[in-house]
Design a protein that fits this description.
With about 260 residues, this protein is α+β, with helices and mostly antiparallel strands. It is about 25% helix and about 30% strand. Strands 1-2-3-7-6-5-4 form a 7-stranded mixed β-sheet, sandwiched between helices. Strands 11-10-9-8-12 form a 5-stranded antiparallel β-sheet. The protein is globular and about 55 Å long. Bound molecules: biotin (BTN).
């Protein structure tokens, strides 16, 4: 990959400025810095390797040379979009899911809120970060990491959740610029529908573990167990516990093995 290949691959999409780097700490860090220094809506950072890739909840994200797609998109949300800020990361999850479905014929699912799974294994992680000036939203950076080839996968002992790659599902390694184009095309197409029921329906239809017994590990709270029902109108996860239906706003969803009683 190089910048010119990306410029050609993304022609016609609302991506006015692209920065490609071979190696960087984290594309999100560069995109956040760029946002502070005037990056316009749709500006894009792409890297071949990340040496300090970041995941949700302070985790590490490994990006190996030539094996993954790692990018961060700078968005400057409108006032209407800013009211639905929490939906930007599922928007990216849906975009990856639909790109895999439509372009490669791969059936993918979304583990709430935004991890993309193939056959129950994680193929893509998303880290959306907002930048504020006091109470004023300056912008949001959506960071997306996709395991393109098998070489992207960390050793099993380093994984918190089973992982897979597009190569494993497709039987070949897709071209990263074409994959990036497919994902961004979906993201921009759905961005305008963030406020509508159609977006929630498309997300909900691809939700992993629906109707199954799950455990939700929540930050600073006891884990919650119950049956996963679906996505609520504001993007929370609906979980039916023994007692009631609960709306979860943050956490990690795991399937609960049969017989586990807490
Ligand atoms: C997660 O699953 O916890 C989220 C992983 C997000 C990784 C991507 S790779 C591109 C961007 N840059 C980062 O440092 N993180 C995101």
């Amino acid at each position: 990959m190089d910048e010119q290949i990306l410029v050609n691959a993304l022609a016609g999409l609302p991506v006015p400025d692209i920065r490609y780097v071979d190696t960087i700490g984290s594309t999100n860090d560069l995109a956040l810095e760029w946002l502070e220094n005037g990056a316009v809506d749709g500006s894009l950072v792409v890297a071949d390797t990340q040496t300090a890739g970041r995941g949700r909840m302070g985790r590490r994200w490994v990006t190996r040379a030539g094996a993954a797609l790692a990018f961060s998109l700078v968005l400057r949300p409108s006032t209407v979009e800013a009211a639905r800020l929490g939906l930007f990361s599922p928007l990216a999850g849906l975009a990856v899911c639909l790109a895999l479905e439509n372009v490669y014929g791969i059936r993918a699912q979304i583990k709430w809120p935004n991890d993309v799974l193939i056959d129950g294994r994680k193929v893509c992680g998303i880290l959306a970060e907002a930048a504020w000036n006091g109470a004023v939203l300056r912008g949001v950076v959506i960071g997306v990491g996709v395991n393109v080839s098998n070489a992207a996968l960390p050793p099993p002992e380093e994984l918190l959740f089973p992982a897979t790659s597009i190569e494993a599902a497709l039987g070949r390694i897709p071209e990263r610029p074409a994959l990036l184009r497919a994902v961004l095309a979906q993201l921009f197409a759905w961005r305008g529908r963030l406020s509508g029921a159609e977006f929630l329906a498309a997300w909900d239809a691809r939700l992993a573990f629906k109707g199954m017994a799950v455990r939700i590990d929540q930050p600073d709270r006891q884990p919650l167990t119950g049956t996963l029902i679906g996505v609520a109108p504001d993007g929370e996860l609906r979980v039916k516990t023994n007692l009631e239906e609960v709306l979860v706003t943050a956490g990690d969803v795991r399937l609960r093995p049969a017989g586990e009683d807490r």
